[in-house]
Each structure stands twice: as C-alpha cells, then as structure tokens.
Amino acid sequence: MRAIRINRFGGPEVLQVLDVAGPAELGAGEVLVRTVATSINPVDAKTREGAIGEGTPPLPMTLGWDLAGIVVDGGGTGRQVGERVLAMSHQLGTGRGTWADLVALPADALATAPAAISLTEAATLPLPGLSALQTLDWLAVSAGERLLITGAAGAVGGLALQLAVARNVRVDVLVSREEQLGFVREHGADFATTDRADLKDRHYDAVFDTFGALVTDAVADHGRYASIATQAGPVPDLSARGVRTTVNQVREDGKGLSELSRLVEEGVLTPRVDSAFAVREIRAAHEHFGRGGLNGKVTITF
Ligand SMILES: NC(=O)c1ccc[n+]([C@@H]2O[C@H](COP(=O)([O-])OP(=O)(O)OC[C@H]3O[C@@H](n4cnc5c(N)ncnc54)[C@H](OP(=O)(O)O)[C@@H]3O)[C@@H](O)[C@H]2O)c1
Description:
Elements: E1 2-6, E2 16-19, E3 30-39, H1 42-49, E4 61-62, E5 66-73, E6 84-88, H2 91-94, E7 102-106, E8 110-112, H3 119-122, H4 126-139, E9 146-150, H5 155-166, E10 170-174, H6 181-186, E11 191-193, E12 204-209, E13 219-227, E14 244-247, H7 254-265, E15 273-278, H8 282-291, E16 297-301
Parallel strand pairs: 9-10, 9-12, 10-11, 12-13, 13-14, 15-16
Antiparallel strand pairs: 1-2, 1-4, 3-5, 3-7, 3-16, 5-6, 6-8
The structure holds NADP nicotinamide-adenine-dinucleotide phosphate.
NADP nicotinamide-adenine-dinucleotide phosphate is lined by residues 41-43, 127-128, 131, 151, 153-157, 174-177, 210-211, 228-231, 248-250, 292, 294.
GO molecular function, one term: quinone reductase (NADPH) activity
Protein name: NADPH:quinone reductase
Keywords: Oxidoreductase
C-alpha cells in the first residue's frame, strides 16, 4: 500500500510516497479502514519540520491525524465492511499515521461519517472538530453566556463558532484578516474584529484561544480561559481572579465524532474545503498549506 512518510525532518521535500506493507493482523477491538481522504493540520507540518521535539515518534514515520474512509475489516467490533467512517488518530501519541491506503484503528476512535457530505469534506472534521468540541466542553459555556473565540476563521475556531452558536452562546471573535469577517458573521458571531484593541472594554465568561493570543484581560473574573496553542506556552496563572485556565490537548473520541457527524446531518456544522490534492501531490499540498491565507482545510484524496 501507499504511505506518506518522512525519514528525516525538513520542508515539504522530505515527504515521500512509499510502497510499504499494510498493517499487520488486527489487534483486539481494531477496525481496518481504507482511506479515501485526509487533511493537513498544523501539527502535521510541525511534525514534518521536527518542531515538536520531545514526544515525536521515531523515524521513519507515517504522518496524519485525520481520516475518512471505508471499513474493509470490522474485526468483530460490529463495524460492517463498506461502512463510511471518520476517525482521528493521535499520531504523536501512538505513531499511527493516517496518511496511508490502509489504517488499523481502535473501533472506539471511529464514528459513522455523515451521509450528507463527501468523504473529502468529512476528512476536514476529526482533529479540528474534536479540538473544538472537547475545549468547549471544558469551558462549559451555556446558553446566554458570552464567549470570545480567537482565530475564529481557522479550522478549529470556525467549528467552535458554529458549535457555540448552536448552543445559544453569544459569541464574539478575533480574526486575522478583513476577508474573514464575512465568514464569522455569516456563522453567527455577534461582534467580530481584526484588532485586539477593540476587546479592551469587553469581558467574557469564557475565552477559547486557538492561536495563542493570550488576551487574558478579556476574561471576566471567575471565568474560564482555554488555549489550544501549545506552541504559545501555558496560559498565565489567573487564579487570583478566580479564572480557571488550561491548554487543552485533543483526545481520540469516537463518541465526540458521532456528535459532530450528527451536527453535520442537522445542518449545524458546515465543513470547509480550501483545496483538494492527490497523494502524489503531497509536497505541493504542504507548500500550499504553508503559504497560509487559507479558506478552509487542505485535503488529500487517496
Ligand atoms: N492542543 C491541541 O490539542 C490542538 C488541537 C488542534 C489544533 N491545535 C493548534 O491550534 C492552532 C490552531 O489550529 P487550526 O487547525 O485551527 O489552525 P488554522 O486553521 O491555521 O487556524 C488558525 C487561525 O488563527 C488565525 N490567526 C493566527 N494568528 C493570528 C493573529 N495574530 N491574530 C488573529 N488571528 C490569527 C489564523 O489566521 P490566518 O489564516 O490569517 O493565518 C487562522 O484563522 C494550531 O497552532 C494547532 O497546532 C492544538
């Protein structure tokens, strides 16, 4: 089978499409999936570059966290051959990358893919969607509360915005570019700005910080502040103001993916595909991803 691997760290030129052996016999509780599509996440580029440091799986490694595909062996788990599924594999934690024709994953990391969208669209959801869902759950924002999302036009931020609005939370956003204002307003942001100075007199019950803005003055006393931007370091200790803080780490979570699938079916969540590349174009896909200015996810079709 084909796998997208690196055997050294560096730019897109280190990515190789290799013919390798498929997964060995399935372990207990595992399902074998034929990959139809995946997408590029910031962590894939950082892993490729060697920027993760401690905790990086050994070389050579197959990259990739997101997966949308078809079950080819249910392994006695109840999953049937031919089912359309989506999954997130914690590639850094397990070394099990999804950028391969065949991927074996624990059944409880999988969910049924939404019937209403293509598997290329579904491949945009797992890592960003679970990051959005798990962090919103940690923030425990309820209807009527005020939430600030930084980077709300990004992959995680855009899904967090849609999820929070569906929970009747009042959402304000900070984005990087004027052209992102249309997207966030269309998806229910009350107040949207590109200028963090505009947040000066605003105070929120909760802040979901996707890029490490660390706008800690924006959280009200006794509020909650969650960052997912590990590269920005820890959120300063705000316990003197009664504010709980965290840097959230995404977890494999089939139940969470089922919820995301259901929300897509109900029209609450809309996947965004910036562009679709073939496996053989993986270097061009990474170059495109690295240039930024994206409007949705960069997907890879197998
Ligand atoms: N801890 C975890 O488990 C976890 C999980 C998922 C993601 N992450 C991390 O979270 C971050 C976001 O992930 P993502 O997939 O959502 O990335 P993304 O799609 O690139 O989104 C990031 C967003 O933040 C915006 N942004 C960046 N710098 C900004 C600034 N100075 N002011 C305003 N907006 C700014 C970007 O705007 P532009 O498009 O203009 O650059 C983009 O819209 C990444 O660093 C990723 O590695 C962590």
